Every structure is written in C-alpha cells, then in structure tokens.
Amino acid sequence: MQILLIPGFWLDGDSWGPVTRDLEAAGHTVHALTLPGKRPGDTDLAGIGLRDHVDAVLAVVDGLPGHVVLVGHSGGGTIAWAVADARPQRIARVVTVDAIPMPAGTCINDELPVEGDAVPLPDWSLFEDEDLVDLDDELRAHFRAIAKPEPVGVAHEPTRLDDEARFAVPVTIIACEFPAALLHQAIGNEREWAGELARMQQLDIIELPTGHWPQFTKPAELARSILTAIQP
Fold first, then answer.
1. The AB hydrolase-1 domain covers which part of the protein (predicted)?
2. 216 Cβ contact partners less than 8 Å away, ≥ 6 residues apart
3. Which of 3, 29, 79, 207 is deepest in the core (most CB within 10 A)?
C-alpha cells in the first residue's frame, strides 16, 4: 500500500523516522511529506496557506498509482481530510493521529502566538498537560531542535470541503489524549466539532494513550496502530 505521512505543525517528513521504518518493514511504500514553508531553504512564509499544503499533498496523490492511505498527525489530519474531500475515489483510508476531521469553515488553530508570517513552536507552558504526557526532557529538546516555524496562513485559513463523497472514505482515529468514549459521546450529543464524524460511513477508533506526539513518545506503538488501521 502507498502510505502518505502528513506531519502536523512545526514538523517535517523526517519527524516520522521510526514510524516510516516500521511501516516499510511491513512491506508498505511510505512517503513522509515535508510541506511548503518547512522545506530546506524555505524562509519566506508569507502567502503560504492551508490550501497550499492540501495542494502539495494532492500533487503527490495524483502522481501515484492506485489507492493511497493518508495518515495525518494533528493539523495534518485536517489536511488529510481535505485531500480525501478532493479525491475521494483515490483514498483507501484516512488515519488521523490525535486529530479529528473538522467541519468546513474551521481553522486548525488561530490561538497560537504569531511572529510575523510564522507560528513558531511556543514555550511548553502554553500546552496542556495532556499534550506533554511521555514527552520527557530529552524528547522536548529533540523536538525543539528540529522544529520549523509553521506558516501563519496554515494555522488561520479556514478549511474547504466540497464533496460529500468524502463520507464514504473509511476513517480511523488514533486517539492519544482523549478516549474513544469521548468521541462517541460527542457524536451522540451532536456536538458541532463532531459533525464530520457523525456522517462518516465507516469510523474506527484506536486508543493509544500518550501525549500529542506519539511519533516521538511511542513510535513503535504508533506504527502498529497504523498497520492495524489499514489491514484488510
């Protein structure tokens, strides 16, 4: 299977390293993506928006044969869902890692501190305790060393969804900070942020208790969860 790994804020394709190796060892072809604004030499982030990241992933999808699996971490889950909306017939499954596909018109996060055209990795004190579970001092230092500023347009631009055929695409949520019961409760209570989940024809949830960055804190377990999600 062709698997596209879409990183969340501040991260590039290399951040998936151990996960990529485990998926490849299982026989899959993996494309760990680095998106516009976070590639070597990218310094001008002005004008880079969410749709630019979606279009970058679409270009990879369109260049591959057959069906593909999209795996999106955090904000990458929003990108993956928008790609599924644009190419529903090409996507075998969307896997979101500690992320929930959000309704059209919502943005990934417009509350993070901005510096010019960028959203740099903020101080750890700005994150919730649940985000930082298992992210010890060594992992925090590694994360900060490799972190790249996120284009502010990616954080602030509302997502666009146009094709209801996306709801036929199977979705698996790998839930790290929140239990599956919380999602089921939100769907049952018709919470607005769970509106996309409520309309999905096939939604699976795999619990992987850890913080918001399992590719750092539990990479082997994350790879196994992805393999479980995509197995026939």
1. 3-224
2. 15, 135, 139, 142, 143
3. 79
Answer for the pair 214, 208: CB distance below 8 angstroms, yes or no: yes
Q: Are 93 and 172 in contact (CB under 8 A)?
A: yes
Average pLDDT over residues 105-113: 96
**What's residue 70's pLDDT?**
98
Mean pLDDT, the chain, whole residue set: 97
Task: Return phi, psi of residue 43, to 5°.
Answer: -125, -25
Distance CA 78, CA 86 (A): 13
Amino acid at 213: W
Find out whether 109 and 96 touch, Cβ atoms under 8 Å.
no
Where are the extended beta strands (E) located within 55-176? 68-73, 91-97, 118-119, 150-151, 171-175
Residues 3-39: tens digit of each pLDDT: 999 999 999 999 999 999 999 999 999 999 999 999 9
Give the Cβ contact number of residue 212 at 10 Å.
22
Strand partners, 69: 3, 93
Is this structure's pTM higher than 0.70?
Answer: yes
Q: Say whether pLDDT at 232 is over 80.
A: no
Q: Give the SS3 label for residue 69.
A: strand
Mean pLDDT of 153-176: 98
- Domains identified in the chain and CATH numbers: 2-230 (3.40.50.1820)
Distance CA 208, CA 206 (A): 6
